[in-house]
Design goal:
heterodimer, A: about 350 residues, alpha/beta, Rossmann fold, 2 domains, 13 helices, B: about 325 residues, six-stranded parallel sheet, 11 helices, 8 strands, about 40% helix, about 10% strand, globular, binds thiamine diphosphate
Chain lengths: ~350, ~325
């Protein structure tokens, strides 16, 4: 847990990740980082800066572009007692090594009857920032669908640091999806959680964060969706629409309790998801809430997600399909008008 | 076919001027995502253009614009695609990393290691149909450490497919120098592991490369089996526009740009051989720039895709 006496300062998301890695690698020499461009260049988003100089090439390894093999290597390292953090530069490339991820990393703890721990983190960047179909996407629901791995996506800067520490210290495999927009965002531009303790701390995986209290409607989201929703909520608040925003932080485990408690008060649920709509997070949340509260618990349900289309290159098209502050605001107003 | 020196020169300058036009769209936010240019590697484009027929296939990478031009993809539609316009080759859906021109058997991918398998498919189809075409799969030096490189060369060899694997060895995969991730001194020597002959050529010598590549393609086209050809070169700009490029030191970049610029090298050669003079060559440069600037101006007034079409083209209409 965070030490309340620690000194705080504002840093940005990529710094928070790098700092967490630095502290965890110092704390535990079994932690090893590998991936493309993680070493000398410090990562394409700067999330592994300074680590190569500090820990050298054996613990911070620039790999060839051979995702399947170095992901499998991570599995072997974990089985041999190390705690690998494997960076796959963009979440889209997890397709290249999905075999090792879902047949090996995610299943070995179970297949071994619980005898083989898998303290491994796959760290990657997702999100839609105008990079077209093969370098956008979030894909968290894809990994959540496949049993055996935790799926974490931080929103606040503080959580970038604390959740990364938790992922590294976990005995279970974690897919850790950073959002490119949040990695590139300046700390002064964050609406929430840019104050970060200097020392190491852990944010437990599996506990959602109510980032804005409200009484009219429950908005459930994660990752950059949190910042987008805070922006939208501030707009509609001027017109007296009071939105509660829940940052899930992880979708496996999924903190249904926090969501259900909120919905029990508001009776209205909006899920904002930057991943694809169908067979995904939004339906899962709605069903879990209904399972818990009973089928009549919701007066209003809305899902705002990418409508099952590959991410187009043209920004005019991307903006038409990816949830952002304006479209979230629109959805909130529509819901308020219809209630 | 005898090479026409001024044509080779003109092709290279047009490719460079095209990329320079693309560069203009980055600071203005007309182009999004990671734009990769081929500046410094143009001789490779010329070699492709010279050796291939319209029916041959080229499957390219994230660094694909000049391969597309070499394959005959219309520059106007390509530029419009790169600038994400409705008039683009793919109606603004694909963007600069994903241009597709089925008429010219040209495609590309933003995923490293994903080009050769698709080229292998073209090669298989050509063989199955008894067609005299070749499929060129292009990969960077970095991509040759991908499993697909090895898997594809093995399949191409054992099935004797008309695949030409063209390796652009610009010495870096983003920040990682080839020597740090590859144990052999050349990449092409790995071909021997699959029972193939590989060749490494100087990829900044436009005539030498064009001839060597043409010979390779001819061999494969005539049923001589797959080939592996590595062209050495240097990437002049950052990996993508916006790359801080701190991993290559300044003096290295300066020296390599002077030594490994296929255009200025060739300019000196042409002048020394009396096949061109400084003025005439400068006029070719200026003409290429003017052509691309005019095209850029046109593209800039093309419409963006209409947001109402965002869900179009997910599935094609079924034939009735
Ligand atoms: C499967 C996959 N892994 C990683 C990347 C990120 N990436 C894009 S280009 C690149 C380097 C490619 O190097 P090389 O093949 O030598 O081509 P070059 O960029 O030098 O032309 C990397 C790692 C990717 N696009 N796809």
């Amino acid at each position: 847990m965070a030490d309340v006496n620690q000194s705080m300062r504002r840093i940005n998301g990529s710094q928070a990740i790098a700092e967490s890695l630095m502290q965890e690698m110092e704390r535990d020499e079994r932690v090893v980082l590998l991936g493309e461009d993680v070493g000398r260049s410090g990562g394409v988003f700067g999330t592994t800066r300074d680590l190569f100089d500090r820990f050298g090439p054996m613990r911070v390894r620039d790999t060839p572009i051979a995702e399947m093999s170095f992901t499998g290597m991570g599995v072997g390292m974990a089985m041999a007692g190390l705690r690998p953090v494997v960076e796959i530069m963009f979440v889209d490339f997890l397709g290249v090594c999905l075999e090792q991820i879902y047949n090996a990393m995610a299943k070995i703890p179970y297949m071994s009857g619980g005898r083989v721990p898998m303290p491994m983190v796959i760290k990657t960047a997702g999100g839609n920032i105008g990079s077209a179909a093969q370098h956008s996407q979030c894909l968290w629901a894809t990994f959540a669908h496949l049993p055996g791995m935790h799926v974490v996506a931080p929103a606040t800067v503080r959580d970038h640091k604390g959740l990364m520490a938790a992922a590294i210290r976990s005995e279970n495999p974690v897919i850790f999806i950073e959002h490119k927009e949040l990695l590139l965002k300046k700390s002064k531009d964050f609406l929430s959680g840019a104050e970060v303790p200097e020392g190491a701390f852990v944010t437990p995986i599996g506990k959602a964060n109510i980032v804005r209290g409200g009484s009219d409607l429950t908005l459930v989201t994660l990752s950059a969706g949190v910042e987008y929703s805070l922006e939208a909520a501030a707009e509609v608040a001027r017109d007296g629409i009071d939105v509660e925003i829940i940052d899930l932080r992880s979708i496996v485990p999924l903190d249904v309790e926090t969501v259900a408690n909120s919905v029990a008060r508001t009776g209205r649920l909006l899920v904002v998801d930057e991943d694809y709509l169908s067979f995904g997070l939004s339906a899962e949340i709605v069903v879990r809430v209904l399972e818990r509260l009973g089928p009549g618990a919701l007066r209003q349900i809305q899902r705002h997600a990418v409508p099952d289309v590959p991410i187009p290159a043209a920004l005019s098209l991307e903006q038409a399909i990816v949830p952002g502050p304006a479209s979230i605001e629109r959805t909130l107003r529509e819901m308020a008008a219809a209630s | 076919m005898k090479l026409n020196p001024l044509n080779l020169y003109r092709m290279m300058t047009r490719m460079r001027a095209f990329e320079e036009a693309c560069l203009e769209g980055v600071p203005t936010f007309e182009i999004h995502g990671e734009l990769h240019t081929s500046i410094g590697q143009e001789a490779i484009g010329v070699a492709l253009a010279h050796a291939l027929t319209p029916e041959d296939a080229v499957v390219s990478t994230h660094r694909n614009h000049y391969h597309a031009l070499a394959k005959g993809v219309p520059p106007r539609a390509l530029l419009a695609e790169i600038f994400e316009r409705e008039t683009g080759l793919c109606r603004g859906r694909g963007g600069h990393m994903h241009p597709f021109d089925p008429d010219r058997h040209f495609s590309a991918t933003g995923i490293v290691g994903a080009s050769l398998p698709v080229a292998l498919g073209y090669a298989y189809a050509f063989k199955l149909r008894g067609l005299p075409h070749v499929a060129v799969g292009i990969c960077g030096d970095g991509a040759t450490n991908h499993g697909t490189f090895h898997e594809c060369l093995n399949m191409a060899a054992v099935w004797d497919l008309p695949l030409v694997c063209l390796i652009e060895n610009n010495q870096y995969a983003i920040s990682v120098p080839i020597g740090e991730v590859t144990a052999t001194s050349t990449i092409s020597e790995r071909a021997a592991a699959y029972g193939l002959a590989g060749e490494t050529v100087v990829g900044t010598d436009v005539e030498g490369l064009t001839e060597a590549f043409a010979a390779t393609v001819r061999k494969t086209r005539k049923g001589g089996g797959p080939s592996v050809i590595e062209a050495t070169c240097y990437r002049f700009r950052g990996h993508y526009e916006g790359d801080h490029d701190g991993y290559r030191d300044r003096s290295e970049k300066k020296r390599k740009r002077a030594e490994m610029d296929p255009i200025s090298r060739y300019r000196d050669i042409l002048i020394a051989r009396g096949e061109g003079d400084a003025e005439g060559l400068a006029a070719i440069d200026a003409e290429a720039r003017a052509e691309m600037q005019a095209m850029l101006a046109e593209v800039r007034s093309d419409p963006q895709p209409d947001p109402s079409g965002a869900l179009d083209h997910i599935f094609l209409e079924e034939a009735r």
